[in-house]
Description:
Radius of gyration: 22 Å
Oligomer: single chain
Strand order of the largest sheet: 2-1-5-4-3-6-7
Strand content: 15-25%
Mean pLDDT: 91
Distance between the termini: 51 Å
Amino acid sequence: MSDGLSILQLRLDGLAETMQQTLLRCAVSPVVREGADTSCALFTRGGEVLALAEAIPLLLGALPGAVGAILRDYPAETMRPGEIFVTNDPFSGGTHLPDIAVVQPVFAGERLIAMTASLLHHQDIGGTRPGSVPPDATEIYHEGLRLPPMRAGQAGVFSPEFERLIRFASRAPDVVVGDLETQLAAGHNAAEGLRRLAADFGTGGFLTAVEALLDRAEAETIARLSALAEGPFRGADELDPVAELGPCAAQVAIRFADGRLIADFAGSSPQVRAPVNCVRSGPLSAVFYGLLTLVGEDALRNGGILRRIELKLPEASVVNASLPAAVNARMNMVRCITSAVLQALAEADGERMPAANSGMSYVIAFSGRDAAGEPFLSTEIVAGGAGGGPHADGAAAISTDVGNAMNISAESLEAMVPMRLISAERRRGSGGAGRFRGGDGVRREYEALTDGIAASIRGERFARVAKGARGGGSPRGSAATVIRKGGERIALTARSAVTLDKGDRLVIESSGGAGYGTPD
């Protein structure tokens, strides 16, 4: 039975990965097609994770909340074949407004057997700045169209009313609708595979096997956690200081009791009037990622693991924001939380855990009109470096821990916006020193080819950088600089909005990973 369950899990994982590859091949926007800013998963009819694509852990941690919110408003027994549900509400299980979840129930005959779900970063969903990631937002209402859990289509297609709503809200309606249609197609393909699986097992046999899969993953997790000392094990990290905001710190105490991982975030800072807050999906993603590292690569990866996680989150905090908090730049807070979680887990199981990663990523949105007067809009993600480990140097220029996005190539960027990518390289020497060095960050330099290009920049680790492990050193901090055509240099802050004219250059430099062990 165990071998059969492993094979079933592999087949389900393959379906989730096929969904992911459909999005990467067919999406319209380059942040998905080139940057891979999307995630897919399969769910049981009760809303538990059944299979995960090899994708961004940050988004995979959000999908259970989005599916759960949809099921609360539309119970499984009321769903019908061909219905489509969507949400992007951070306060109903989501992340931030550009990430729209598309959920489709899967039926074998008249019997609900599973659900497909995808989350994709959409190019623009309204708000005060193009790209829907305004660095100066102080509340959610500045950030764009907020969709509650809702029925958005029937008979396998989006309703005209839903499509019209999206088109009225977005500055890039064709791109957004095209990417939504791609999500729909990915779900349709996975649904066909699920129906074939159910036919192989018989519908009742399939549902029984699915429950056995979850139970087995839960049992494996209990066995692994029961071997660890109870704790508590503590970790903490903090975003760069901004005088008018006050502290933005994450604190966590992790205990292992009765085969459960209990993560208590008491002591984390109250939410702030800036878009750096995150909602519950952020700490869930961080703890889920950390727990996956503990259970090992051979463990079944499904909702059985999530059953053994208990989160204690202070209300209206930077780790669990409440309305009307702004959240579009939540990524670096989630990385801050992840750093704190990994510190705590390193106390619990130090021989397996490396030094801290860079703990940051840049998100840059370029927008304006080209020389012909046509509007353009493109978003890209710039990574940092990985921390050195117990046995090897950290990798350079890589998206780490809860991130798994790719850089956008020069060819793709230059085809979308009137910018020239002058250079893209390792930022040598930016990783922390150590017996095993931290990986270097990234340096990218852009030149504007027309006037009036708006650049919204969200970064982190300009002032506070990751700490080394076991005597290792810290990396260099991030930086962002505008070099005007006449030679003037302007140092930007971590969250900036700037206008570039023809001949101006933008230089982005990301932090590296921390070092492990005392340097030789």
